Amino acid sequence: MHISLSDYLMDIVQNSFEAGSIHVAVTIEQGLEKIVCTIEDDGKGMDAHQQRSVLDPFYSEAGKHDRRRVGLGLPFLHQAVEAAGGSFVLESALGEGTTVRFSFKSDHLDTPPTGDLALALATLLAHPLAQDLVIKRQWESDGKRGGYTLDRSELLEVLGEFESSGNLLLLRQFVASQESEVPSEVR
Amino acid sequence: MAKMTLEELRKLRQQVQGDLQKRDIEGKDSRIIIGMGTCGIAAGAKETLDGFLSALDEKKITNISVTQTGCMGLCYVEPTVEVIVPNMPTVIYGKVDKETAKKIIEEHIGAGRLVTDHIYDRPAADIIKKDGGR
Q: Could you please report the per-residue DSSP string of B37-70?
């Protein structure tokens, strides 16, 4: 199991990159009562059998890891969501893409902490398989709303690449500065 | 911390590039590859990545390549990290937490000395053959 919501999110978004997606859209909507994350990709998608199987920890897509037969990303998330009274929806069409949407109630004892979301988002932006990745982070607290958008193409244009340690430090700093504006009660 | 704009980021980038040109390029062609599959993430690979970036920042080293990869097949010693430095053997370190990351930067990258108590594997010639060494 993962420790934080940020870790679950990182794990699931990586699936989209590994599915050969060009466009990946991540939306994180956080309010006082719940956090809802949506990951939408245009990767290779899954048929009905695969969609049922991905929640089984003893199923893994053939060929992803030679000789390994377990796949724990989605089963971990599903289990965590069930334990915390959240929701989980997987929609997919073969050859078209996949959408995963999950939510956690803020006040449930078993809801994992958000964790270092800025670091998780910076790590996803720098993932070697990421192409068009747009992350929307929205928050709402006591009638006030806010948020920020991270567009990988824009950031790539500014930084040039996401591989050298100097650029990764700048990327981490940039994302952390966006996240610093989010009120602490919805972080 | 105030919210940074893209323009401010661009200026900072130019500043870093300028600093880099001023001094000898230390660590050029060195690579740090962090295993970030489900197993890596569960064991804290995100914090390991942060540890490497912070240690590099402390030493003002900006030109080492830091990338992510999936599971390296050593789930029992996650977080795992492959370190490639010219003229040194390629090493896969295991159980790399923030402190170990700092040690790897100081010793392996900085002083050219292996951090022997964390070496778990390295790609030997027979492993990287087409048949996977089977």
A: SHHHHHHTHHHHHHHHHHHHHHTT----EEEEES
